[in-house]
Amino acid sequence: MRKLTSVVVAAAMALVAMEAVVGAPARAAATQEYVALGDSYASGVGAYPYDSASGACLRSPKSYPRMLVSSLGGYTLKDVTCSGATMADVRSKQLSALSSKTALVSITVGGNDAQFSAVATGCLTESEWSCEVATMYSSYYARNQMVGELAGLYTEIKRRAPKAKVVVLGYPRLVAPTGSCGAISPSAAKRTFMNGNADAVAEGTRAAASRAGVTFVDMRPVLAGYEACSPRPFIHGVNLTRLTETFHPTLEGHAAYTFLLSAHRS
Questions:
Q1: Using DSSP, how many helices (H) and how many strands (E) does the chain show?
Q2: Mean pLDDT over all residues of the chain?
């Protein structure tokens, strides 16, 4: 797995370099409809700056959906991702973008339903006991109720886009076991609780994808060693001037997502 991780990281760095130089689709012809669904991990939070037209949804030109289209071509993108989106938001505000013409769907969602952000904030600012309790409740939800809810959402996506390949990209572990995380560095115990919670959300998502018969991409092995607080992070640490980006992928992290989506898109 370490060899695969090295390949993905190298490819991600190459993709970032190519995007910086080219900044335009490698192929001009757009032939297939691609719909991007999901939350801040899908919209590109962490890859600043954001498209001002997207408002509070914080869609970045360097999100994994947009980098896929920019680097590969061959797709027309409907990007309805939005920072802060829950499963209910995807149902009410994003699924209408799907149709029988849709050939590819990507989605990352569930973290907000599991209170990922609130749990992380609590673990950074409150006691170890509070962090343990918060992650415990979030993990229980993720391994139980969330599985059925996500599976139902994925099934609805398949119903609305019956010809599409549906790719579910999961969440990584957030923090390295040691190292500075920036303005606030959680204790070793808190890091264990937080990463255990990330595992629960990832495994719940995997179970839901399996139940619904869609493709799941596990980002934890790929970004292992590149979490926040590591020597070479692909996940943002704590920056008090850019709190929204805390524990979200960097540009390189989003490029790693792009590489894995490309590998599973057909």
A1: 10, 5
A2: 91
The tally of CA atoms less than 13 A away on the side-chain side of residue 99 is: 7
Annotated catalytic sites, by residue?
A: 40, 248
Q: What is the pLDDT of residues 175-194, one digit of tens each?
A: 999 999 999 999 999 999 99
Residues 7, 209 contacting (CB under 8 angstroms)? no
> Measured between alpha carbons, how far is 241 from 261 in angstroms, rounded to an integer?
31
Residue 31: the pLDDT is 84
What span, in angstroms and rounded, lies between the C-alpha atoms of 258 and 13? Answer: 11
State the Cα–Cα distance between residues 20 and 25, nearest whole angstrom: 12
User: Mind listing the domains of the chain with CATH numbers?
Assistant: 2-264 (3.40.50.1110)
Instruction: Give the burial string for 82-107 (b: 16+ CB within 10 Å, else e).
Output: bbebbbebbeeebbebbeeebbbbbb
CA 14 to CA 257: how far, in whole Å? Answer: 13
In angstroms, the CA 132 to CA 256 distance is 30
Q: Which two tokens stand for residue 215?
A: 């493709």
CB 234 within 8 A of CB 176: no
The beta-strand segments (E) located in the chain are 32-38, 75-79, 102-108, 165-169, 215-217
Per-residue model confidence (pLDDT) at position 14: 53
